[in-house]
Every structure is written in C-alpha cells, then in structure tokens.
Design goal:
Elements (H helix, E strand, L loop, with lengths): L7 E7 L6 H9 L6 E8 L5 H6 L6 E6 L4 H12 L4 E4 L5 E2 L3 H11 L3 E11 L5 E5 L11 E2 L1 H11 L9 E3 H8 L4 H4 L3 H12 L1 E13 L2 H7 L8 H10 L2 H4 L4 H24 L3 H7 L6 H9 L1 H18 L7 H11 L2
Parallel strand pairs: 1-2, 1-4, 2-3, 6-10
Antiparallel strand pairs: 4-9, 5-10, 6-7, 6-9, 8-10
C-alpha cells in the first residue's frame, strides 16, 4: 500500500474505554489497507484510556485529549472536524474490525462513485468477545450492485426500524465536512446517527456490503440501557416523523409503507406498556394498548412473526392486569422483553 491509494481517516470517539480500546485500535492498525490515519478524540476520560493508547507506538495514531466532556454526539462532531483524506469512518472504541474491512469499503466506494457512503453487516459479541448474534440487511431489501437510494432505505426503516450499523459506516470526507457538519444531538439525542444516514441519502446513494466486517459489542451496560424502563416513544419516531413532515418524502410512500409505520409504532407502545407494568403503572399500560385486539393488530399478527409476538405480548399485559396478577407476571414480562432485544 502506498500514497497512490486514497487516504482513509479513522476517527475513534472515546470515553472511559480502557477495557476495550487497545483491542479496537489494534484491529484498526492491522487492516490490510495501510494508507490510513487514526484520530482518537477523548471526551475527558477519567480512566487509563489515554495512557493505553499512548503506549501503542504507531505514527498513524494521533491523540486529541479534551478536558471538557461534551457528550457522545458532541464528540462525534469533534470527529467530523478532524476528518481528512478521501474517506472517513467513525469507529467505536469497543468494537473489533476485521482485517479487510477498510480495503473492501474503499474498493466499493472507488467502484461505485455514485455512493456517498457504505456500511456492512456485523457479528454481535458480548463483554468478553463471545459471538451472540449477527446483524444483517433486512430481508426483501436487495440491489444488483449493493447501492440503495433514499426511498428504498426509508421504506425499509418504516418496516424494520433502524437497521444501520453506525460504527460500520465509511463516508466520503467532503460529505461529512461540507454537508453533514454536525450530528444533530440537540434534536435527536442518541438517535442522531439515523438522521445522519437519512441526510446523506437525500443527496447521495448509500452502499451496503453483504459481509460481516466487524464485531459489534453489546456490553451488559449497553443492554441495560436498551431495556431500561422507558415509557416515552422511542427516538426513532421523532426522527421518522421529522422526515415525514417533508412532503417530498411522503410522496414516495404508499399505503403499505404507512401501514408498516403504524405496526412499528404499535410494537413500541406494547414494549412501553410492559415497562409501565414493571414500574407498577398497570392502568397506564392498558390505556397505551387499547387497540391491541383491533382488526389491524390481528392482521399484523397474521402477516409477520413480529406482529404475532406484538399481539401476544400486548394480550398478555391486558390479561395480567385484568385479573389482577400483573405483579406475579412481572418476571415473565421482563424475560419476554429481554428475548425481543437479543
């Protein structure tokens, strides 16, 4: 590899990542594609993150230590400011990247110049690196050359929720610097990554590589966050509603797309109703899913496994509350919720 190949910028936002950052960084430095530079943006870590990284002797690694913690999305903005070269990827400090990930992504973007970004599939690993699952492109979403436009991806989000793997994205640097500029955390909080991909899609196509090129870590802390007792609508709907307010986006949708959105929203309400039961608010739980036995809910159950489980879980909540056994049913509800998040 030499300078005739495009320079790739790998940004790593970190905060108290001492337990994983060495393995992550070593997987990046071991890439078969060597014309890359690594910028580590540390968000005022209080552990040994900086010392661990500083001990790795490689001239491609540059450490940017910040004394002020600006939050996760703010640190992603710092990474965009550090972006250089032709392509930029913002990788997470606890994931592991396969040796040929960068090479395959660069090759794809060089061949498919209409694509502004590319992402891949991934294995899911736990705290100790054991494979516990995988993330694939949703079934039914296919393209001869692996390049997709806004309509295809937005319709799929309405059906499947957010399936983009944030730390697998490689983006043309000029798009990050000139078009995206910031992750809109003030608008969408932790869901700002989906907003970034949709913003890119509004002006460029996005590629997908059907290979598991990384190992995406789901730690016990992350899992606790994902199954926390949230009773407000998922941030996904705030983002989707924002894009649905734009008439040009509504015009590309049909009845099935809006139906899929409705089914996705009902599933979210059922999951929130479980949280309400778990926090001893049974009346609110039942009120949230008063349409669980509607014709549309039954039709959704007949059409997909997700719809069937949504109907079953909602019906179980209604039953436990109606017979006054919701406290007894808490254990089984918590287990079923955990299963749905695997």
């Amino acid at each position: 590899m030499n300078n005739d190949f495009p320079l790739v910028c790998i940004c790593i936002p970190t905060y108290n990542a001492a337990g994983t950052v060495r393995e992550t960084l070593e997987s990046i430095l071991a890439q078969t594609y060597s014309n890359l530079v690594v910028h580590l943006s540390d968000n005022a870590s209080t552990d040994e993150t900086i010392e661990i990284v500083a001990a790795i002797s490689d001239p491609r690694v540059h450490i940017h230590r910040h004394d002020v913690n600006v939050g996760g999305e703010g640190n992603f903005n710092r990474c965009i400011q550090l972006a250089e070269g032709k392509y930029t990827a913002i990788f997470h400090a606890d994931d592991i990247y396969e040796p040929d990930m960068v090479a395959k992504q660069v090759a794809f973007l060089e061949e498919n110049t209409e694509a502004g970004a590319v992402f891949s599939e991934a294995y899911l690993i736990d705290d100790v690196g054991t494979t516990i699952g995988e993330i694939r492109l949703p079934q039914g979403l296919a393209s001869p050359n692996g390049v997709y436009d806004f309509a295809a991806m937005f319709k799929s989000v309405l059906r499947h929720s957010n399936f983009f793997i944030c730390p697998s994205f490689m983006v043309k640097t000029q798009i990050y610097r000139q078009e995206i500029k910031v992750w809109r955390g003030d608008m969408f909080g932790s869901g700002a990554d989906l907003d970034v991909w949709l913003r890119i899609l509004q002006n460029h196509q996005i590629g997908h590589l059907p290979y598991k090129l990384m190992r995406y870590r789901i730690s016990s802390n992350q899992f606790s966050a994902r199954v926390r007792l949230e009773t407000a609508p998922a941030v996904l709907f705030k983002i989707v509603d924002y894009y649905l307010e734009q008439e040009e986006n509504r015009m590309i949708l049909n009845y099935v797309d809006f139906r899929n959105y409705k089914w996705l929203e009902r599933r979210d309400r059922v999951m929130r109703s479980v949280n309400l039961v778990l926090t001893d608010r049974p009346k609110e739980a039942v009120a949230l899913i008063n349409d669980i036995f509607s014709r549309d809910a039954i039709w959704a159950a007949l059409k997909s496994g997700r719809g069937l489980f949504t109907l079953f879980l909602g019906a179980y909540v209604r039953l436990m509350v109606s017979i006054g056994l919701y406290k007894v049913g808490k254990i089984s509800l918590a287990y079923m919720k955990k299963v749905t998040h695997k």
